[in-house]
Specification:
Belongs to the complex I 23 kDa subunit family. It holds the Pfam family Fer4_7. This is NADH-quinone oxidoreductase subunit I. Keywords: 4Fe-4S, Cell membrane, Iron, Iron-sulfur, Membrane, Metal-binding, NAD, Quinone, Translocase, Ubiquinone. The chain is an alpha+beta fold. It has seven helices and five strands; from the N terminus they run H-H-E-H-E-E-H-E-E-H-H-H. The protein has a three-stranded antiparallel β-sheet with strand order 2-3-5. The protein has a two-stranded antiparallel ribbon with strand order 1-4. The chain is elongated and about 105 Å long. It starts with 8 loop residues before the first helix and ends in an 8-residue tail after the last helix. It binds iron/sulfur cluster (SF4) (2 copies). One iron/sulfur cluster (SF4) binds next to helix 3.
Amino acid sequence: MAEKSTPSLKEQFWDPVAGFGVTFRTMFRKVVTEQYPKEKFPTAPRFHGRHQLNRWPDGLEKCVGCELCAWACPADAIYVEGAENIDDLDENGQSQRYSAGERYGRVYQINYLRCILCGLCIEACPTRALTMTNEYELADDNRRDLIYEKSDLIAPLLPGMEQPPHPQLLGDEQAYYRGDLATSSVDASDRPAASRAAQEPSEEGRA
Ligand code: SF4
Ligand code: SF4
């Protein structure tokens, strides 16, 4: 049987200390642990987070219910049902126009159980109705609440915007899509707030 050798001085005194080398070095470094969710850090500006359905400066919706976003989605996460805008007033004298175009998105859903936040849908959108925000808190404790409805995705009304349905306040349909809203035929005396909003950048989510 081999005789057990006596540990050297290095093995007795230095090696146990060296074993804690990484621990000691790390103790004096800046802490990198993020205290989420107590502390939230901004994402990169072009981070792909929750979608947003944008509005024109008068509050009308930009979505025209064309479904191109749904067809572009590789995960089949978007469901759109379009409907016709009607300019005739209903029996209550109320306009039935929701967007600047022939149609609008009557039903709009994004299923965040499927969405992989790839951004192909926002590339496909012809009116820049659909963009993506930096919001990344898309978790829940049930599946139903992760199917976002139009009411969850639509951009908030900014000052000067009116809740649709209402007529096109910024001019004819062409005026909306030519990009010359600032010079469109808004009656400044009737619609000062809408006119002001038309000249200011809208609060679109980032693409
Ligand atoms: S981000 Fe990608 S996966 Fe999500 S809805 Fe758009 S196209 Fe579909
Ligand atoms: S979000 Fe854009 S692509 Fe999708 S239905 Fe509306 S207008 Fe069409």
